[in-house]
Amino acid sequence: MLTWNDLLEKIYMGEKADMECKLAGKAVPQSVYETYCSFANSKGGDIVLDVEEDKSKSNPKERFILRGVSDPEKLREDFWNTINSQKVNANILVDDDVYIVENGDIALLVIHVPRADYTMRPVYKGENPFKGTYKRNHEGDYHAKEYEVRAMIRDQSSEGNDSTILEGFTMNDIDMDSLRRYRVMFNTSHPDHVWRELPDQEFLEMLGGYRKDRRDKSEGLTIAGLMMFGTGLAIRDEFDNIFMDYRDETGAGEAQRWTDRVTYDGTWENNLFNFFMKVSPRLTENLKRPFALKNMKRIDDTPVHEAIREAFVNLIIHSDYRMDAGVLKIIKTADGFTFTNPGSLKLPKEQIYSGGNSKARNPHMQTMLRMIGFGDNAGSGFPKILNVWADNGWQCPELDEDTVMNQVTLTLLLSTGQSEDLSAESAEKSAESMHLELLNSLSARQREIFEFMEKGKPYSSQEIADVLGVKLPRTRQLLNELISLGLIQATAATKNRRYIKI
After folding, report:
1. What count of other Cβ atoms lies within 10 Å of the Cβ of residue 168?
2. Are 359 and 347 in contact (CB under 8 A)?
3. What CA–CA distances, in Å, run from 421 to 353, 426, 427?
4. Which of 111, 239, 411, 497 has a beta carbon 3.0–4.6 Å from 47's, enabling a disulfide?
5. Which of 397, 400, 398, 417 has its CA nearest to residue 408?
6. Hey, which bits of 219-378 come out as E strands?
7. What residues pair up with 133 in beta bridges, in sequence order?
8. Contact indicator for 212, 310 with CB cutoff of 8 Å
9. Cα 258 from chain centroid?
10. What would the pLDDT profile of 222-272 be if each residue is shown by its tens digit?
11. Do 90 and 156 form a contact (C-beta atoms < 8 A)?
């Protein structure tokens, strides 16, 4: 929850992709529910009622006028009643997401909308997702296009997207040279595997590249099978929106945009397996290879080599190949690498950075690459990249999601970021100083609550309200402000909630 000062700072920064101010008066504006949907389907954000924007003013304090809600409790209740009705298809909020921030006589209602889980998107108004789905850009809310809605519906499947049988595509559409080279690599990696002697179709079926549907008796190549091993012509027949592009710009100048490029030029079958095998050596060829032995054999790979290939694997397994316009783009520069794929993030950034939870759009492609030694176990790939970059003292890899262009870009820079290497003692002193500064910034009421509470002892909001002699809603607001500052924590559900000093 935002404190008054934090909220004010955010308001004066202006409306943007994660912030929307609305004039409310005595009723919740209907446009709130469009913004609710757009935030839920994009990156989340905050809706603030009751703030009026005078677009003729440039000074933020003159442009955004804090009107204040006359009856904030009623407005909050009205919002909850509507959000739980048929106005929208899903309520993804919890009690603490809708709260009142007060300063003197001014009360503002804040609605914090998190990003919806991929299994719940799209979130939409009314009964028709193709008419009621909204997304967010810097200019505000906009109706999602049909292909964007279909992408969200596809992502709801926990089994991924690449097992779909493609009607009319058979083993005749497989580039047998690509498949043979893959099988050589598979056999080398798994000399005793039971799949080694299987016919090509059965082998591909075991990998998820060919499938038979027992219910409707259909069978054929899957998206995984065609995209990984198909002929270029067959892939372009089904996925004419997909474009694979690698550019080496390390020695480029004004007269020359790149020094090396791999894209479709008619000289190779442009499936994903070929693209991966052609580009991977180019990505890592200039990296240092310190001399090392293992079992009396030289090791040519380093953790950096592995991390860059992991980024390439992620590009393939997280792409949405059904997007309206999809480019798998890799750019190599003297400073590092960028990997761009079509689609959005299925998981929030913080979950991806922490690892342990993989939600690949194309799990069968992931299996195909892992069976020949590329790609880590589920959920560990991105943290591995982070660890390698941290070990080298390089800037933290940046994962950027563009929900308007519907693409994700991973940037890996081979340069040292500015960071402070604090000792344990100095870090502890720094933490103590920050804590003291935080306590000194508390309002009189906040400090009164904090000093009254004993560490580790649970209190109800009513207990604290009785001690302070303050109304219960105001007490809850003060407690929520202390929670947002990290000084206390709440336990249990709303009715049995208790507050504990940390």
Report:
1. 11
2. yes
3. 21, 10, 9
4. 111
5. 400
6. 219-221, 242-248, 260-263, 293-294, 297-298, 326-332, 336-342
7. 124
8. no
9. 31
10. 999 999 999 999 999 999 888 999 999 987 766 677 889 999 888 899 999
11. no
HSE-CB at 163 with a 13 A cutoff on CA atoms is 17
Tokens of 138: 């810097």
Measured N-to-C along each axis, helices 72-83 and 31-41 cross at an angle, to the nearest 10 degrees, of 60
Q: Which of 339, 341, 337 is nearest to 413 (CA)?
A: 337
Q: Give the separation between CA 403 and CA 42, rounded to whole angstroms.
A: 6
Please, which pLDDT band fits residue 300 given cuts at 50, 70 and 90?
low
Q: Which residues of 204-222 are buried (b: 16+ CB within 10 A; e: fewer)?
A: bbebbbbbeeeeeeeebbb
User: Residue 97 has what DSSP assignment?
Assistant: G
Q: Tell me how far the alpha carbon of residue 144 is from its chain's centroid.
A: 18
What's the count of helices (H) and strands (E) in the chain, helices before strands? 19, 21
| Continuous segment of H or E residues that includes residue 39 | helix 31-41
pLDDT by residue (tens digit) across 62-109?
889 999 988 999 999 999 999 999 999 999 999 999 999 999 889 999
What digits encode the pLDDT tens for the residues 201-227?
Answer: 999 999 999 999 988 889 999 999 999
Tokens 């005078």, located at residue: 54
Distance CA 47, CA 113 (A): 8
Residue 292: phi and psi, rounded to 5, are: -150, 145
* CB crowding 283-315: b at 16 or more within 10 Å, else e: bbeeeeeeeeeeeeeeeeebebbbbbbbbbbbb
Coil, helix or strand for 212? strand
**DSSP string computed for 345-359:** -SS-HHHHHH-S---
Q: What are the tokens at 335? A: 């400073």
Residue ranges and CATH numbers for the domains of the chain are 4-155 (3.30.950.30), 171-413 (3.30.565.60), 430-501 (1.10.10.10)
Calculate the alpha carbon distances from 272 to 195, 244, 269, 319 in Å. 22, 8, 9, 11
How many C-beta neighbours within 10 Å does residue 73 have? 12
Amino acid at 200: D
- The overall pTM is greater than 0.85: no
Closest-CA residue to 114 (of 419, 350, 301) = 350
Going along 394-477, which residue ranges are E strands?
398-402, 407-413, 458-459
Is beta strand 260-263 parallel, antiparallel or unpaired with respect to 242-248?
antiparallel
**CB burial string 366-405: b at 16+ within 10 A, e below:** bbbbbbbebbbeebebbebbbebbeeeebbebebebebee
Residue 476 near residue 483, CB atoms below 8 Å? no
Q: Residue 311 forms beta bridges with which residues?
A: none
- Alpha carbons 104 and 197: distance in angstroms, whole number: 78
Record the tokens describing residue 298, joined without a space.
């030289």
